[in-house]
Amino acid sequence: MTLDARADAAAAAAGARTDRPPAARALFIGSEIYRGSSYGAWHPLRIPRVSTVMDLARTLGWLPRAAYVPSPRARPAALTRFHTPRYVAALEQAENDGEVSAAVRERHGLGTTANPVFPEVFRRPATAAGGSILAGQLLRNGGTVYNPAGGTHHGLPNRANGFCFLNDPVLGILSLRAAGAGRVAYVDIDAHHPDGVELAFHDDPEVLIVSVHEERRWPFTGSLGERGAGQVWNLPVPAGFNDTEMRASLHELILPRVADHRPDAVVLQCGADAVLEDPLSRLALSNNAHWDVVQALSHAAPRFMVLGGGGYNPWAVARLWTGVWATVAGADIPERLPAEGEKVLRDVVWTGARRKGMPPSPWVTTLRDPPREGPFRDEVRSRLAAHAARARAAA
Ligand SMILES: [Zn+2]
Questions:
Q1: Could you read off the pLDDT of 140-195 as tens digits, one per residue?
Q2: What is the whole-number distance in angstroms between the Cα of residue 191 and the centre of ligand 1?
Q3: Is position 299 annotated as part of the catalytic site?
Q4: CB under 8 Å to 351, separation ≥6 — which residues?
Q5: Which of 111, 123, 109, 100 is closest to 36 using CA atoms?
Q6: Which of 62, 129, 235, 281 is the most exposed, having the fewest neighbouring CB atoms within 10 Å of its CB?
Q7: Which domains does the chain have, with CATH numbers?
């Protein structure tokens, strides 16, 4: 079966029809390949992420068979819509050989500390990419599709980059456009700037890119002044960025820019590394901030593709992304998790994290963080004002 036919079949099986309310049409794309595969014992992505979300959502009764779509693995030909054939072949070869030559490491960034060769080094990212490509097809007639394994926004055409081997957001956007969504709004609230996505669509006036990311952090792209073809809006934010500041960013930047763009589809990269507990960033959001963005964007266009992204504290990721699914699926988040849900979180192992008393009780007994409101600092306020002025000038 071709991917297209498979998408149509999956959509039909899942009841993806336009005459149903959006919440009922939300689909979850997952795969068992994420369970147990790891980037290696010391890599930040040694932790379980999507498998925990799937387990938790199932124990809460939020993932009926009709809402779950197994992710296909993208074929090399589908990947070369963005990546070079030479790189895709090198990635497949790396999985077959279990190693790469010095020349391949140099040319394609494979076999490095950030992008190591591991047993599923082709299959796993190709499955995440296949999920985002399928999401674009499933959204042909509208709706919401969540692919938490997606969001690998650093992938470059010819190289692995920043823990990302392939760029599924780019492939997902191309898939949406092939399925009739010409104008796409890409919103990225990961702690890191989406350099690969911006590279792909920098000069395309039909793709809006709005990114909120930590300033002076790798990959050091995404400056305030970048405009691309007029549709690039970067908001670098300082350490300690809080829920109050994210709410201001949502209402003063994200929502007005998306509304002005009149998109046929919104793609949200919902990386979980901008929360306080994340070990790789210095931002201080609660998961409420992410869920508010998800909720606010859920009716901004007829099609809504929600992706994962970064996130390196396994409890924070599981709670945040399960709550993302609750938000798009219209499920009520309980104050306290039922015992089976708590067990899923208690069973998570974070090797190498030897802090005493881990995990603290709220990380395993609740999904929702306490809100983390804080000052609306001048540097955030003035950057939002600069973007508002730019938008008025362009109008
Ligand atoms: Zn990130």
A1: 999 999 999 999 999 999 999 999 999 999 999 999 999 999 999 999 999 999 99
A2: 5
A3: no
A4: 41, 46
A5: 123
A6: 62
A7: 3-394 (3.40.800.20)
